Predict the structure.
Amino acid sequence: MSHLLKYLGQGLAYALFAVVLGYFSTSPEYTHLPADSALVKLSFNHAAQRKKPCHERTDAELAKLAPNMRIRKDCPRERSDVVVELEMDGKQLYHVVLHPPGLSHDGAASIYRRLLVPAGTHRFTARLKDKEEGDFSFVREENITLAAGRVMVIDFKADVPGAPGFIFKN
Amino acid sequence: MRKYLQNLLLRLENVFNAPFGQALNPWYHLGAITFFLFWTVVVSGVYLYAFYRTGVEEAYQSVERLTHDQWYAGGVMRSLHRYASDGIVVTMLLHLLRNFITGRFHSFRWFSWVSGVLLVWLVYICGINGYWMVWDRLAQFIAVGTAEWFDWLPLFSQPLARNFLGQGDVNDRFFTLLSFAHITIPLVLLLFMWIHTKRMNNAETNPPLRLAVGTLLALLALSLIKPALSHAHADLALAPGVIRLDWFYLAPYPLLYIWSPGAVWALAGGITLLLLAVPWFLKPRMRPAVAEVHLDNCNGCSRCAEDCPYSAIVMRPRQDGRPYALQPVVDPNLCASCGICTGACPYSMPFRSNELVSGIELPDHALATLRVDVDHALAGLRGDVRVMVFGCDCAYDVRALQSEEVAALSLPCIGMLPPAFIDYVLRDTRVNGVMIAGCREGDCQYRLGIRWTKLRLARQRVPHLRRRVPLQRIECCWAGIQDGERARAALSALRARIAQLPQAAILEDDTREHEFKPGDKN
Ligand code: HEM
Ligand code: SF4
Ligand code: SF4
């Protein structure tokens, strides 16, 4: 092989290396979010109500306990499940029952869920129940216009004075 | 299956041998090129670091300024930084593939293999970490993706992805942390690269200069033609739509959404476990016997330890009462049974009239047996142009070259051949020429066999080939399993050359029995 051919061959090999690096470092393009869609992220932490309310121990009950455990107020630590529902335009988008974490099931339940929806105006209804008995304790319903590519975050805060419940952040 | 791949690889590598030559073939230097690319990343990274600002706004803006306001310096450095990082993935994965296909992963190589698998993870972590620092839409995509990926593991009391819900969730301190990680993790990578090669004697951590220059020029050209650019500034209220993904580092991310985070864990974990298991699942049933030391014939000169390619020999204080300071001790777990130590030992002297035992030998390839085989092969030769061929079990099978005028013997590695054996066969004009054959140069199965052989023949590394041996009667040929043509051509060239020379190979009247004296340097 002549010198010229050799250098040409080497150049070709280096060019191949560079082309592979140059091409795959940006191509092919990846479409993460299809055009005309938006993202709903349902995410919050929430500690549900205790399963059983606190009660005052009677003297007889106290006497049965070890001396260092004799506390008048008895609060069972276990919390209820948190039931969450999300509807869009009357159809259920998501439904989940969150169990309280922790060994004694007393922790705050948390959720993070991404839901792909078509862009446009929709009626969203979010419901949450965090106690054993009764119906949903928190409901929020709202018409929202989601631009394409938009991320709407649905948060929940029980400790906002005046307006506890769902927050739609668009 | 691996045999088939091996053939394919040898053919492919041969395509590169034509323009590069064996010594510069990039396929034989993939580990070293990876090292070189790493240093390129470090140097360009130091430049970028000087201009990088930590902060939600500043991070993106400082990278933009680097890219556009000083495209000729910062922009080129940024592109070099990116493309060299991409190059690391390419050369590293080819290096992995090549070691797999050539079966270089089991027995004494398990440590290199397993530490290599760890390097794959570290390289990926460094690269992904780097992409976060830009804080553009791509960074946002992988930040959220990584958080969603880790949230699949039951590790965190609340989802990590909650840290990337809205614009206010990411703060300046986060970028201080990221840039701290982007120095620390590459340092850990370097540490493990060092560990990866530490067990090898003379590990090639720098490629040949011309390969390094060529690689750098290619990356520079690419950086000028296609500078690395950012996406738009990250905005957590917007979901990244169409992304120009770096597939070398970020290919798993789309799978998070096409499949699921759990599936990506299964894939990553599965591949890792499979790779980690390879040295034990695919190892040959039998492992050849490892080198044995014969202290009666050892003066503790340390040459075997210096030449052992896998640092399997350590020199320890002498135990047998003989008046030498040291003795070699072989670690059987590290020994490759290549015999290179035998080739290095000054006691590997075929001229000795008494029993021939070297200071260090492979039990399955005793030197005494080699001498008997040589004598036997030479006794059968006829004709005027008689040649002895010494070959290597890992390379082209030289026994196919045998004829009335050509004798051939194969050794576990050509590095096992003590140079004195060349002298020995040329003595008394038993043959007129010697051919030394081994793997393709750069592709020595035991890394250093060819290198030491060449240096010993050039009288630049002990044990030297004796001065009285005329070099024009020796032909070296580096030919892989498939390279019969090259081997035959080399043999013909040698025979044509020695046909022109006088019959007697060793002209000096020095054919008397040669007794070895310790300290004999020649
Ligand atoms: C950052 C990535 C890596 C670098 C910089 C690197 C570098 C090197 C270097 C310099 C050598 C010595 C070559 C020689 O002198 O013969 C080597 C050997 C080796 N590497 Fe790597 N390596 C990397 C990743 C890997 C990976 C991912 C694997 C496989 C899982 C691997 C497996 C091996 C093996 C088995 C050897 C021994 C080869 C032999 O004994 O002939 N390496 N590596
Ligand atoms: S046979 Fe090879 S690996 Fe084993 S001790 Fe000798 S030189 Fe080292
Ligand atoms: S090369 Fe031979 S003499 Fe020297 S230390 Fe090794 S075994 Fe002993």
